[in-house]
Specification:
Number of domains: 1
Structural class: alpha+beta
Pfam family, one: HODM_asu-like
Bound molecules: 2-acetamido-2-deoxy-beta-D-glucopyranose
Order of helices and strands: EHEHHEHEEEHEEHHHEEEHHH
Protein name: DUF3445 domain-containing protein
Number of strands: 11
Largest sheet: 8 strands, antiparallel
Keywords: Membrane, Transmembrane, Transmembrane helix
Shape: globular
InterPro entries: HODM_asu-like
Strand content: 15-25%
Organism: Capronia epimyces CBS 606.96
Number of helices: 11
Length: about 375
Amino acid sequence: MAMDSLLHEGLSWLLPNLGLVVIALGLITAAAIPRVLTPKAATATATATETVNPPHENKNESESEIHPLLDFDVATRPPHPYRPWRSGKFAMTMGVSKVKPEEWLDLDNKYWQEQELRRQLLVESRPEVMQLLHGSEAACIEVLDTVVDYLTRRYPSLFYRPEGKDGYIYNGLTNLSFKITAPYELHPLEIAAQLVMEDLNLLVQGFGPEPDQYYLSASFSMAPAGWYLKERIGWPLWKIHGPVPLWEEKLRLSVERFFLRMKPGDIVMRQNFFLQTNNAMFQQEPFANSMLSAPKIEDIRIRHERQTLRRLPKTGAVLFTVRTYLTPVVDLQDEPDSIREFLGAVNALPESMAKYKGRDVWGEVVESWCKKQLEHTDTDSA
Ligand SMILES: *[C@@H]1O[C@H](CO)[C@@H](O)[C@H](O)[C@H]1NC(C)=O
Ligand SMILES: *[C@@H]1O[C@H](CO)[C@@H](O)[C@H](O)[C@H]1NC(C)=O
C-alpha cells in the first residue's frame, strides 16, 4: 500500500505516516515545557538554529560520565510521565535538546511486556520489525557495542558479563544471555533490541544515490506509527518525511544540516506525540482505516515518543532511537496543568494542519473531555 509518510512536521520528522488518526500534534521545545511536567526534558534546551552549530568543544569530563544506578528497581518504576505538549503559538522547529550521556536510554516497568512483544514479533513477523541492508553490518555491531557499554555502566547490577562465559552479556531482567562478540549467534541489532526498550534505526550518509543524504540502512522497529518498515528501508530522510505540510520548506534544510554536522559524543533528544484510537504499539496500518465514527474518550491514546540521536564514532552512522509510550487521555485526569497545555496545543493547530492531523475525528471528544476536567478543577479550587 502507498506509504506516504504523513510525518508530523516539527515533531516527528523522522517517523511517521499517520493515517487519519495517529495524529501528530503541536511541537515542543523542552524549554517551553513546565519543569514540573517534564523534569528531564527541562535541561539544556536548544533551538534548531542553536543546535545546528553545537559548541561543545570544551567538554567537561564529569558531565560525560555515566554514574551507575545500583539499586534501580525496574519493576516499581512507572514510565516517565513525559508530557510533551504545550499551548501557545504553533511552531515548526526540530526542538532538540542535549542529553547527558548517562540519561541516554531509560528503563521502566513496561520492560517485560514489551520485550515479550519484541520476541514474539521477531519470531512471527520478523521482516516487519527488522530490516537490514547489506553493508550496514559494521554499524549494527557498533550499535550493539554502544548499547552494551551503556547498560553495563549505567545498570551494572542488571546487565553484566557473566562469570566464566567470555564474550557474553547477561540480561538480568529477562534472564537471557547473548553472545556479543563475533561470530554472533544472533544479528547484533536483534541482540541490542532484546536489551533496550527503544526502537533502533541507523541512518548512514551516502547509503544511496546522493552522497550528502542520510539513508535508513538498518532498523528494528516494534512501534511503527502507521507505516511499513519493509517499504521505508533504504529511504533518505526527505522521503521518510514525505508530504508533511511545511516540512520541506521549514525543516528539511536544518534537519539535513544537523545530520551532517553531528559530532560523536553529542546526544540530543526530541519528543513528539500523536493521537490514536486504539491501544496498538505495533501499528503498521494507517489508523484511519478502522476509524468510522467518533471515538470514545476511553479509547483514545496519546502516542508519544522520546527520540534520541547520536553519531557513532567508528562508522559515522547516526543512531536514531525511539521509545514509544501509549497513554490513555483519561490518565491525565489528575493533571489539570497537562490538560490545559494539551487542549491549548490542540487548539493552536493551524486549520490546514488540524485537518491533516485528523482533529476532525477526535477533536470534539477530546476537547469536551478536557473542558469538563478543567471545570471540575475550577469548581474544586473555588
Ligand atoms: C565540570 O562539571 C562539574 C559538575 O557539573 C563541576 O563540579 C566542575 O567544576 C566542572 N569542571 C570544569 C573544568 O568546568
Ligand atoms: C529470572 O530469574 C529470577 C531468579 O531465578 C526469577 O526470580 C525471575 O522471575 C526470572 N525472570 C524472568 C523474566 O524469567
